[in-house]
Amino acid sequence: MKMNPWTTALVGAGLVSLPAMAIAEESHNAVLTALSATTLSGYVDTSAQWNLGSGNGFTPNYVYSNGKADGFNLNVVKLVVERPVAESDAWGAGYKVDLWAGPDANVIGTRSVLADGAGDFAVKQAYVALRAPVGNGLNFKVGTWDTIVGYEVSDAPSNPNFTRSYGYSIEPVAHTGVLASYEFCSAFSASVGVANTFGPSINERAFPTKAESYKTYIGALTLTAPEDWGFLAGSTLSGGVCNGLGSGGVQTHWYVGAVLNTPVEKLKVGAAYDYSGISEQDLGGPIEASYANAIAGYASFALTEKMTLFGRGEYTTSDQPLFGATKVFAATATLQYDLWANVLSRLEFRWDHAADGSKPYGDPGETKGNSYILLANIAYKF
C-alpha cells in the first residue's frame, strides 16, 4: 500500500493504524468502482407563454397548463442518477433515481401518502433494476416507475410538442410495484406489471375500500417493423391496458398507438387512441359510470438538418366537461430549431375549440369557445 506523506505522519504519531488505513482504502476503491458506472443527467425546462386575447381566468385544461398563461415560467428541473444494468451481466443489477423540482413537480402527483401538501419537489421514478438470465434476458423494475401506457411522456423535452395532449391527460402517470419486460425478438417485446393502485401516489393502497390483496395490473406490447420492410422499417405499433383503483373508483385505461416512417424520408406520422372508463360501483358510496376518450394524429417533417416542424391534431369526448367542454378539438404546431448545443428551442402555437358549442375559455362573464396560445420553450439537457 502506497501512502502519501500526510498518512505516513499520522501513522508515525500513532493516530492511525496501518490495518485501518488499508481497510479504508479498500472501501474507498469499492465506492469509486460503483460510482464509475453511475451516470448523472437531466434538464432545465423553461417557457414563455402568451394566451392571446383578453381574459385567462379559464384556460384549456390539459396537464401542466395551470399558472403559465401570459408570463415567463420555470417549468421543472430534472435530475437523474442512474446505474444501468450492464448488458454483459447475466445477473445484472442497477438503479435509477429520477427527481423533479419546480412548479410542475406539484402536478405530476407522485407525492407519497405521507406527504403534507405540495412543495415544488417530486420523486418521479426510483427503482432497482434487475436482470435474470431467462432466454434473451428478463428485466425487472422494483419501486416507482413511469407508466408503460401512452404515446407521450411526462418529460416535455422528449415529446414532439411542448404542451401535452388530452390523451396524455387521461392516462396513468406512474406506479409503485414490480414491472417485468422481455424482448422476444427485435420485432416483438412485452411488459407486464403489478402495482398498488392506478394512481401515481407513491405507497398508496387500495384498501380500506378494497381488500388488502387488491392490486392494479398493467400490460403493454410493442411490434417493430423489421429491416426488410422497406420504408416502414423501424416503424412501431404498441398497445396497452391498465386496470385498478384510481381516485374516482376502479378504472380501466386502454391505449393503442403507432409511429410510422413514410416514403418521404424526412416525414414521419403517428397516431394514438386513449380510452378511460369508470364503471358504476359502490365503494363506501355510489360512484356513477363515466368515460373519456381521445384520438390524436401526429406528423413531423425535417425542414433542414437543424430545423423540424411538428404537428398534432386531436379530438376528445367525455360524458362530463372534463376539459372545460364535453367535446374539444385542438391543433398544435411546433417549430424546433437546434441552434445551441444541448439546448432544445422551439416555438409553438396551440388552438383549442369547444366542439360542443359551449364557451369554457376566458374570464367569467366574458367566456369564449376558442383559445389561442403562443409560446416559446427553451430547455437545456445535460
Summarize the structure.
The protein has 382 residues and is mainly β. It is 8% helix and 50% strand.
**CATH topology type:** Porin
Q: Helix/strand-derived class?
A: mainly beta
> Cα distance, first to last residue?
38 Å
Query: Which strands sit side by side, in order, in the main sheet?
Result: 1-2-3-4-5-6-7-8-9-10-11-14-15-16-17-20
Class, according to the CATH hierarchy? Mainly Beta
Low-confidence stretches: 6-11, 13-26
CATH superfamily: Porin
DSSP, total strands: 20
What Rg do the Cα atoms give?
24 Å
- Tally the structural domains: 1
Shape: globular
Q: Helix and strand succession?
A: HHEEEEEHEEEEEEEEEEEEEEE
Largest sheet: 16 strands, antiparallel, barrel
Strand content: over 45%
Q: Give average pLDDT, whole number.
A: 91
Helix content range of the residues, please?
Answer: under 10%
Provide a count of the helices: 3
Detailed description of the structure:
The chain is mainly beta. The chain has one domain: Porin (Beta Barrel), CATH 2.40.160.10. It contains three helices and 20 strands. It has helices at 5-12, 18-36, 166-170; strands at 39-51, 71-83, 93-101, 121-132, 138-146, 174-185, 188-195, 216-224, 236-246, 249-261, 267-278, 281-282, 286-287, 290-302, 307-318, 327-337, 343-354, 361-363, 366-368, 370-381. Strands 1-2-3-4-5-6-7-8-9-10-11-14-15-16-17-20 form a 16-stranded antiparallel beta barrel. A hairpin with a 5-residue loop joins strand 10 (249-261) and strand 11 (267-278). The chain is globular.
